[in-house]
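Tyrosine--tRNA ligase, pasting as requested.
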Amino acid sequence: MNQSAAPTNPPSNEVRQALEISLRGVDELLPQDEWLKKLVRSEASGQPLRIKLGLDPTAPDIHLGHTVVLNKMRQLQDLGHQVIFLIGDFTSLIGDPSGRNSTRPPLTAEQIKANAETYYTQAAKVLDPARTEIRYNSEWCDQLGARGMIELSAKYTVARMMERNDFHQRFSEGNSISLHEFLYPLMQGYDSVALKSDLELGGTDQKFNLLMGRHLQQEYGQEPQCVLTMPLLVGLDGEHKMSKSKNNYIGITEDANTMFAKVLSISDTLMWDWYTLLSFKSLAEIAALKAEVAGGRNPKDAKVMLAKEITTRFHNAQAADAAEQDFQNRSKGGIPDEIPAVSLSSAPLGIGAVLKQANLAPSTSEANRLIDGGGVRVDGAVVSDKGLKLPAGSYVVQVGKRKFARVTLD
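Structure tokens follow.
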């Protein structure tokens, strides 16, 4: 199919604004001139563009790193375009080889079903569910059958597939590549054909798969989609991309107090990248705030604003306010309003056993390590004696800044 004709008149202010929003925080938008043409055509026809994001339910929970592309989807959704949240229940059976140096074990159908049930509920905290089309790629992939799969495979060459960085590296290093892994990018690309996508979003590690969608759409006589890649969010450690394996993540289902405190733990430098990728504030608002900080305003003020915005999004404003108060109480050595109540017997009880039985330490040896580090308090006083035994009574026991229990000993 021929590309839509280039605009004969300069783009309207609305189209220019839409392009600016599209480009905010992106790594690449390819090809940008085609996307501009699509925006112009959409404005002229009143027909919203179809914008696709596919996620494989490989784990049951979503963290803030996943929401970077969801935020971009929401921005484009607010411009009036049709966003499609695609759950890759079929492609999960293959396993995405992107960025991997070994064959990824596929999930079972039961694991995929269990994970998919929670995925969209979590994504709906960012997207507007009333304006989101939810699809599963098993709808069309299951129908392909053996004949259709062979016909699809004929539309791409092995030589082109081996240009993909992770495949090329694994082959060069003598690591195995299973034939079914070649099917993954083909199936993801075929999703774009089935959905007649105008734009597909993904992380920078998905670029090959996204471009496959363009190629296959042309093979099937469709106008090719544009491709938008978002940077991978740097995690709490300020060094690696956010991931559970690095334990540098914030899960969007974490409690409000934990979420708020974790955002405040990031560096002042990383905060601005998070503002660009995670905040719904305009770029002008962010620039103004950054200028205020450069002019002498405490950067913690800006970080608190970001923490409250993120906590409000995944909880509510009241919970965010309470989390801010809780953080202030903890930072001043105060006791939160609500802490777990634990009843223990066998008084007098050693402090190590108290910490373990109150779930403040995983083991007695870890409890002793915490005491050696000065991280344990009883009624506000630092415990330095690992042999301390608490008699019958009620105590507020604290580990670090965030763990408390009101312990009653009988």
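Note for the archive: The radius of gyration is 26 Å.
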